[in-house]
Amino acid sequence: MFQFGLMGYPVKYSLSPWIHEHFLKLASLTGTYQLYEINPNQQFDQAVNNLKKHLDGFNITVPYKETIIPHLDKLDQAAQYCQAVNTVSYTGDQWKGYNTDGIGYVRSLETEYPHLFSNDQKVLIIGAGGAARGIYFALATKGFTTIDLANRTISNAEQIAKNQQVQTQIHTLNHVLDVIDTYDLIIQTTSVGMKPNDKEAIIHLPKLKENAVVSDIVYQPIYTSFLKRAKELGAHLHFGHTMLLYQAVYAFEIWTGREIELKNLDIGLKNVLQGD
Ligand code: ATR
Question: What value does the mean pLDDT take over residues 67-79?
Answer without folding.
Answer: 97
